[in-house]
Amino acid sequence: MSIKSKRELTVTREKLAGLEKLLQGTQAKAAIPTLAQERTVQSLRKAIIQMKEEIARFEAKAFSTAK
What we know:
The chain starts with 5 loop residues before the first helix and ends with a helix. The protein is built from 2 helices and no strands. The chain has one domain. It is mainly alpha-helical. It is elongated.
C-alpha cells in the first residue's frame, strides 16, 4: 500500500480511525480473550501500524517536496 494523493491520505486516516475504534471494542468485549480474539487484536494492531507508517511516509515526502 502506498498513499499517492491527499484524497488517499484522507481515506486512510478515516480507515485508521475505524480500525482503532474496532480494536478498542474488541479488547473491551471479553474479560478472558479467546484465541480468535487475540488473533483479531494482533491483526488489527498490525494493520494500524502499517497505516500509520504509510501516513508518516506520505507526510514526510510531501514535506520534503514542499521545501
